[in-house]
Amino acid sequence: MKVTIKGIIKESNDNKQRYYDKVSKVIHLPYLRDLISLGVPPDEWKPILSIVFKQPVAISVHSMGDEIKSGYVIDKFTQIIYDEDSNGYYIIREYDKFHNKTYQYRSMDNFWEKSLFNDKGDCVYKSNSKGIIFDLRY
Length: 138
Hints:
Blueprint: H1 5-26, H2 31-37, H3 45-52, E1 58-64, E2 67-74, E3 80-84, E4 90-95, E5 101-106, E6 111-117, E7 123-128, E8 133-135
Antiparallel strand pairs: 1-2, 2-3, 3-4, 4-5, 5-6, 6-7, 7-8
Helix pairs in contact: 1-3
């Protein structure tokens, strides 16, 4: 059996991808804190969180010395889709194809907000966890 460099690289990449897939399935919110507690090196967070968020992401972390204090995850449009502070509180955001924020959840107070926009980018519906509803769809 002939061993080639291409075969070794492919096998190595396949193993790395399996590792990322497995880690992405076991991490829980707050993600950065969990990745740190699992001992996952920060240079491996990007492929793992890309799987979690089902899109390519970039990550920015704020450190004090060697300790990571907080960070955020950015989508390909440079929108912050996940933000985590030093206490482990986090905010998750979702956007539509026009970059309007359609969902936000804050773990600090369990507040959520959903929005719906028309094709012109106008907000036509908004509701939140406090029961406030704004509806101009009809």
